Amino acid sequence: MAYNLITVLGPTACGKTRLAAALADYYEGEIISADSRQVYKRMNIGTGKDLQEFLVNGREVPYHLIDVVEPDEEFNLYLFKEHFSKAFRSIIAKQKTPFLTGGTGLYLSAVLQKYHLAKTDFNSTRRDELENFSDEKLLGLLRFLNPNPHNTTDILNKERLIKAILVAEAYPAEEEDKSVPVSSFTIGIQPERKIVKERISERLKLRLQNGMIEEVEQLVAEGITFEKLNFFGLEYRYIGLYLQKELTYNDMFQKLRSAIHQFAKRQMTWFRKMEREGVIINWLPEADFEGAKKLIESKCPLFR
User: Fold this and answer.
1) What ranges do the domains of the chain cover?
2) Average pLDDT over the chain, rounded to an integer
């Protein structure tokens, strides 16, 4: 099978970014990040950008979808797909290989499971028109627009039918064919859970020592609200509570560490769900360059 994308995924603190960068350097590729928070500028320590990991053998591996929007700007799945498609086409046009890496399950699924997304106005006058249609007429319209819907629950009630029709009308099928089809060879990193927990704890201590609290203080000084920090989650949420004196330093550390452990567990749950839905993930117990290289060259003819 011909692949045009290599994906390296895994839970937080498994070493996937470093491995993806090493592979991209070796195969003269470029990185596309699938991290929902690393898109924000000046949010470096808390999001774990670790940009030094893109320096391999004295060379900087080109990367995309990092530092693309301001912290007070909106970024969502639709925008991720737009940015991903642009970066993917650009890398392919240079006859290089894109390497997708990150731990945001929804973003990875959008690429690997080929989500088709539309910028849809759910409060349009068209919605008001559809409200006057019978369920039978709505169902007939949806089947005309999308004969093979991925989500069969869209036909269960009128609200979902209307939303499905608005999406289908906003994103005609012929537009989907304009993008370069993505075919990914996917590698997953899954160290033992005990090892991941130890790495999370050590990494958290280092980040706190290296200015993570000061980074959040600077964001607040720039006008980022504590409500927005809560939206960013994990490090930003708990450090925000600490800065508001709602948590002591020790409580902040303990609660944050526990929350990151739970996050890593949820990531693995998501990846297993992807597998059940047909995504083939080739698992390695560690972010091992030689092991990953062997997998790629044994299953991807273009890399032999």
Assistant:
1) 5-116+177-303, 125-170
2) 89
